[in-house]
């Protein structure tokens, strides 16, 4: 384990770091780690059906130059054992246990899509554990259209199969020229890792996570005003999976939240604009509380 840890510490590319595992309640949870072993670590929480190879290496690598970054597989997904939870709350509980098992008293969280649901629930459950929160392509409990993610996604997943394209082409990006070029570039980045790739999600795990997403969309709203930490919210202006209006709603309900909306971008707006997003995220993570700029930015 010490040899693996030293490799994770010195390797600078996400596509090259080893697959690691930690036991939570007797269940192995897979993760990858890179960046300097100092300061507050960043925990990455990803989207529906995502495994370790679905984290954008450009974003991870950029943040890992200055921060310790840990990307995880949820229980029942990819290299993690056990059965995929049926609720966002269970995923948040698993993540809390993982953070504590790793010995961290404070973390920063970046949650994309489903990961943003988990990040919100976690931050509300354990005040003081999360120092700063970044929410991308996501929405609040009970948010507009979240319980329709499956109905929106299935036709586009089928379209991907019929056109021999990754469904994320249609789910994450706009149909404009910029969107299509960004989709191609993003999907190529996800193929950069050539060895020791993660296992894809099983159909059962994929469907169980969809049930958790649907339940999140139907549950009672949470008190986002209770989040007394710096929060950065980012999305594209045309998110068809988790409608962009949800990000504006969260920004209104969270005191001093910073909101960034990318033009001509969809659910994967942070991937399409990865350079701009990482610059914004690094500035946000480095700033003192009084330095934060609030309100919406349209880039």
Automatic annotation (TrEMBL):
It comes from the Bacteria. Signal peptide: none annotated. Keywords: Hydrolase. The keyword Lipoprotein does not apply. Residues 41-272 form the AB hydrolase-1 domain. SUPFAM superfamilies: alpha/beta-Hydrolases (SSF53474). It holds the Pfam family Abhydrolase_1. GO terms for molecular function: hydrolase activity. This is Alpha/beta hydrolase.
